[in-house]
Write a structure and sequence with these properties.
mainly beta; Neuraminidase; disordered N terminus
Length: 301
């Protein structure tokens, strides 16, 4: 483990300006009798081009996402699934990715890609306004908050190498905790912990749990083969049980997080899709609402 003040890395990697076209579908979600069931999938973006990286507001019926404008520059938009209205949070010359509601609920943090290739972590007031730069010395690809002062960063060290950083916002102390990781960084519900994908050479990749108190990572489950996107359902208040969700491009799967089960023995089970499933093509990112009643699924256009 390496700990120290912020280091400056240079990289040739950028978010692709030619992102493939994608749409976000919103499904009703139900968890019952050990099954995960989705239904009533609706296209909530219906917009030619890139619409991706959905994130649910924790208490409002809103999904934030990144969307390309006519000049292929990404802005943050949000969709209210009660009023069916879509609005822009940002309309800028630069590019915003990975919108995330901060733990205090006051801001939307995101990756701001500049024309000079920098990829900074910034935050916008949640009702709109000018951004505040939080991390500028690292080329940040993705991020996830665990608590108000600790943010985990997927950092692009160069064109092929990535690393996972545990970054303290108040002190600028930066700790590298893993290398060669996947693109999903997910806080684990009801835990002070982060989950991420550890890529392995010539082996199936593994989703790991990093516990903040101990600084130790341990395996949870092998990924769906060839995939590195996943998300969590919220923990059941009665027993704290929760599910991992993932896709393989055309199907959706779940796995219950039984801590007593050896990770090598855990399996992925197909979700039940009620009604039309023809839109499930090129499935990538997933997100679950805070009340476990909605699932956002990114698919190919």
């Amino acid at each position: 483990m390496k700990t120290g003040l912020l280091l400056c890395f240079t990289s040739l990697f950028f978010f692709s300006y030619g992102q493939t076209g994608s749409e976000i579908y919103l499904f009703d979600l139900k968890i019952a009798d050990g099954q995960v069931i989705i239904s009533n999938g609706k296209n909530i973006t219906n917009h030619k081009g890139y619409d991706n990286q959905p994130f649910f507001h924790p208490s409002r019926p809103i999904i934030y996402y990144s969307s390309f404008d006519d000049s292929s520059r990404s802005d943050i938009r949000y969709y209210n699934y009660e009023t069916k209205e879509t609005k822009n949070l940002t309309t800028t010359h630069e590019r915003e990715y990975s919108p995330t509601v901060t733990p205090d609920g006051r801001f939307i943090s995101c990756i701001l890609q500049r024309d000079n290739g920098a990829q900074d972590l910034v935050r916008y007031p949640i009702e709109g306004g000018k951004p505040e730069v939080l991390v500028w010395h690292l080329k940040v690809g993705y991020h996830a908050w665990v608590g108000e002062k600790k943010v985990f960063l997927y950092v692009l060290d160069d064109s092929i190498h990535t690393s996972l950083h545990n970054y303290e916002v108040s002190t600028n102390i930066d700790t590298v905790i893993a290398e060669n990781i996947g693109r999903s960084l997910q806080p684990i519900p009801a835990e002070e912990a982060l989950s991420y994908v550890q890529k392995l050479v010539n082996k199936q990749n593994v989703i790991k749990r990093y516990v903040i108190a101990t600084g130790v990572s341990s395996p949870i489950i092998f990924t769906v083969p060839g995939q590195d996107f996943f998300c969590w359902t919220q923990a059941n208040p009665a027993d704290q049980k929760k599910f991992l969700l993932a896709g393989d491009g055309s199907k959706l799967f779940f796995s219950q997080d039984y801590s007593a089960t050896e990770f090598k023995d855990k399996v992925w089970t197909p979700m039940v899709v009620e009604g039309n499933s023809s839109m499930l093509k090129g499935v990538s990112r997933l997100a679950v609402s805070a009340d476990n009643t909605k699932l956002a699924v990114v698919v190919n256009e």
